[in-house]
Amino acid sequence: MSPTPTSARPWRWWPPRDGRPVRERAGQRARLPNARRRAGRARAEIWTAWLSANTPTPWRVGEWDAATWLFTGDVGNRCTVAYRCTVAACDRISRTQALCDLCEKALRKSGLALEEFRDGFVPDRNRVIDGGARPCIVAGCARDGAVWGLCAAHGSLRHKDMMRKRTGAEELEVWVAAAAPYDPLPACLVGGCGRDWRPGSGICDLHTRRLKADGLEVADAAWLDRQAPFLIVNQFSLAPLEPVVRAELLFALAARDLRGQRLDPTAVRQSVAVLAGHRVAAIAAVQLGALPSRVTANVDALLRETFRVVAAAFDRFRSVDPATRPSLDLVDLGARGRHGRPTARPGDLDISMIRQIWLKEILVAWISEAKPTTSEVRRAHKAVQTAARALDARTGGGLDPARLGFADMTAVVAGFENLLRADGQEMSQKNKGGLLSMWFKVLDWGRLTERLDGMAAGFARHSSHVIKQVQVNEDEIGRAIPESVIGQLDEHTDLLGAGITHGRLSPEQVHAMAVAVYELLRDTGRRPAEIGQLEVDCLERDGEDWQLRWDNSKGLRNRRRLPIPSETVTTIHTWQAVRATIDLPSGSEGFLFPPAGEFGQVRHLTSEQISPIIRAFADAVPQLLAEEFGPDGRPLPFERSLIFPYAFRHSYAQRHADAGVPIDVLRDLMDHRSTHTTSGYYTVSLKRKREAVAIAGRHGFDRAGRARPTRSGTAYEAQSVAVPYGRCTEPANVRAGGGACAIRFQCAACTFFRADATYLPEMEQHVMQLRADRERALAMDVDEYVIKNFDANIEAMARIVGIARDKLEALPEEERAELLGAAEALRIVRAQQARVIDLGMPGLPGRRGQESA
User: Fold this and answer.
1) CA 726, CA 745: separation in Å to the nearest integer?
2) What SS3 string covers 425-451?
């Protein structure tokens, strides 16, 4: 990085005007009046004092020396980008958790493997390569070493002895043993420089060379104040900057600490060089674009952040209301990131299109005081913008909150009803409802904090102000990835992880991790975040079987167990073997999958890092065919956007539902609290349901086994009502929706009962339950008529089960397969529509509004 070269002639830089530096040649008379100069200096002093008062003191104890403006990073501080070289015998400092530059060069020359080099290489300790000065090798001499490792005085004395050919002068060790130490010299007058001064100059050799390069002969106080000592990797100095810029940059660096960001001394040191090279007098008055310079990405990011933070602070210093600015700075307003800490990501929100001042003010106040997350802020911003556009179209434009009424709020809600996505497509009702809720949340907060006391009472939420839900099209496919598509993906797992970078992992290690993540998503049905936070010892033995130990972070239920097949166990063991070869980021040792970053808040793989892996994999597969066919009879291409990590959870549920797994068992596998939640994870299309109902209707029979087919699927449902083990055609019970059975659902004895083979599993389960209940009744020593009632029910229902089996076995093979397919579809539908039928018995009260996860 090198700033744009300036003229060789000296320039004097004055406080900038209109974002550009005002400069005057040295020696020329300043055109600014003296009064204006004094006023400018006074304002700069007040601004500097404000910055100092708002900068945490003390800052970085043990690292920051406020007296000399010198920072020396502690390699033991995780918030500082400075590390010891990983070579065992090297004590130099590196910017990365790897080799220092000296050892890096030596490694390239050695031809050794990295681990062997780290263990065996010994750097040349006689070389002074970090700018520091080693003490003179004469015992007891505290002066800086120079030639032959001797201080200047001892070096000169030995040179004279060698010229005079005195005994022992040629042998350094002999001469050093006989030499007497000298008294220490005073330190260089430059702050933070511990080198010996040169007699007569007051500064060391290094600064003497700098003095001559500046064309000066005497180091006056002004020159000394602007000099930095020799800086190494973990150091930076603010001394070369103007006094105001020192305070501004220090304020910005302290603000980074408050947000939990790390401090890179190298980036700061290079940023200081840019600011000093352009002789910036005050960051608050200069636009970053006015400093043409080629810088690295780290330095550019640091400079942009510094200028943004200082500009926001300058607005606060001048009491500028953020609501009057065209955009909002989320960092300045204190919005929180995902993990609760103040966000460090720049994110300006444009509010210039919001004409209602009261709306801007309430949005700014909510962000700065309620401290929402950045995602909440962006949703609130969109909600407020939507409301502002709706109010713009009303009489008065919504500028006066005291004149707003019910009709205005209704118009605002209508604005949310008509929202579109950024691509112009229809926004989902769920997203519309979420934005409307956020709008009411901000508005209610304003009223609660008494910032909207003057607002009309009619401009408030009403029960009619909701987003109307549209009818769901049951013919649309669900979110589950079809098994045929998963099979096609399985044939190309060699493409997993291709082109993905993940921290220090090699491409082969990234591929192995991507394969493990994909197979765990596919085979376990866990959420992406739950896969990412698996512990390294997540496998447990359960006899001869294996279980996966995982945490349901959404449902706040930890240490859950999931039975898994041996193939999944092999997947985890394979990845664990690869993981053992990885130099893991610090803090991630306990997790199965490491994060991409070295010092993030989360020390394991995140769902945000899993999603690109799966998306890139889906895009890389050459061809994916859907189960649907086009007009030409060929399979249509599968929509790749439907392949994302969470979709595999739906596929897991659909796979088990299609296999006939009871919904209560599937609920436990999915770790839901409610079967209603589980049923939303798989689907049967309306077309498939109608076909299944029509097939089942053709094979209906009554309690005596006589065929009772229905003319159509519509008649099958319209002229009967579902009962636990079939359908009921008794007119009064049908009109009551199944709640008016006079014989309390003893269906096997009723002439109105209709059954078919699709109910066979339910009927068999009912017979087993009746027999178990009979045994419990015997143990209770009940009256004989109760046992007789059980016997009669068991005999009747067993007879109907036998009829269903006989009818199924008597069907031709093709027709039997068709009926079994219909049974599979109808079991899923019945599970989704499952409800408790009141048998007239007392029971425990249910819990309403129970949440599920």
Assistant:
1) 11
2) CECCHHHHHHHHHHHHHHHHHHHHCCC
Helix axes 357-370, 429-448, angle to 10 degrees: 90
d(CA 321, CA 848): 47
Q: Tell me the whole-structure pTM to 2 decimals.
A: 0.56
Coil, helix or strand at residue 754: strand
Least confident of 128-142, 194-208, 218-232: 128-142
Q: Give pLDDT tens digits for 781-833.
A: 889 888 898 898 888 888 888 888 888 788 787 777 777 767 766 665 665 55
Please, are residues 696 and 807 in contact by the beta-carbon 8 Å criterion?
A: no
Q: How many CA atoms lie within 13 A of 10 on its CB side?
A: 7
Q: What does the pLDDT look like over 276-330, one tens digit per residue?
A: 988 888 998 887 666 666 778 888 888 988 998 898 889 889 888 887 877 777 7
Q: Which of the given ranges, 31-45, 419-433, 733-747, has the highest pLDDT on average?
A: 419-433
DSSP 8-state class, residue 383: H
Read off the amino acid at residue 787: I
Under DSSP, is residue 390 helix (H, G, I), strand (E, B) or coil? helix
The answer to whether the CB of 670 falls within 8 A of the CB of 681 is: yes
What are 468's two structure tokens?
A: 């109307």
CA distance 194 to 93: 19
Token pair belonging to 752: 């109105």
pLDDT digits (tens, 9 = 90+) for 36-86: 777 778 888 999 999 999 998 889 999 999 999 999 999 888 889 888 888
CB 678 within 8 A of CB 670: yes
| pLDDT grade for 25, boundaries at 50, 70 and 90 | very low
**Are 560 and 547 spatial neighbours (Cβ–Cβ below 8 Å)?**
no
Dihedral pair phi/psi, residue 627, rounded to 5°: -85, -10
Peptide bond into 58 cis (omega under 30): yes
Instruction: Give the C-alpha separation, 806 to 801, whole Å.
Output: 9
Which residue's structure tokens are 């698996």?
534
CA gap 295, 336 in Å, rounded: 30
Q: What is the 3-state secondary structure (H, E, C) of 56-91?
A: CCCCCCCCEECCCCEEECCCCCCCECCEECCCCCCC
For residue 542, give the 3-state DSSP assignment.
strand
Token pair for 694: 């029509």
Cα 331 from Cα 339, distance rounded (Å) = 15
Q: What is the per-residue pLDDT for 14?
A: 40
- Mean pLDDT to the nearest integer, 178-190: 88
Determine the pLDDT at residue 518.
93
Q: Which of 150-154, 569-573, 747-751, 795-799 has the lowest mean pLDDT?
A: 747-751
AA letter at 35: A
Could you report how far apart the first and last alpha carbons of the chain are, in Å? Answer: 52
DSSP 8-state secondary structure symbol assigned to residue 14: E
Ramachandran area for residue 123 (φ above 0: left; ψ -120 to 50: alpha; else beta): beta
pLDDT category of residue 32 using cuts at 50, 70 and 90: low
Q: Which two tokens stand for residue 548?
A: 């996966």
Strand partners, 723: 726
Distance CA 162, CA 166 (A): 6
3-class DSSP assignment, residue 500: coil
- Where would I find the beta strands (DSSP E) of 100-247? 235-237
Nearest to 81 by CA among 256, 252, 247, 248: 256
Tokens of 646: 């969470």
CA distance 512 to 613: 12
- What distance in Å separates the CA atoms of residue 535 and residue 835, rounded to the nearest whole number? 39
Closest by Cα among 306, 311, 296, 329 to 254? 306
The C-alpha atoms of residue 398 and residue 357 are separated, in whole angstroms, by 10
Which spans in 525-674 are helix H? 528-532, 566-579, 607-620, 647-658, 663-670
Q: Is residue 619 over pLDDT 70? A: yes
**Residues 599-616, mean pLDDT to the nearest whole number:** 82
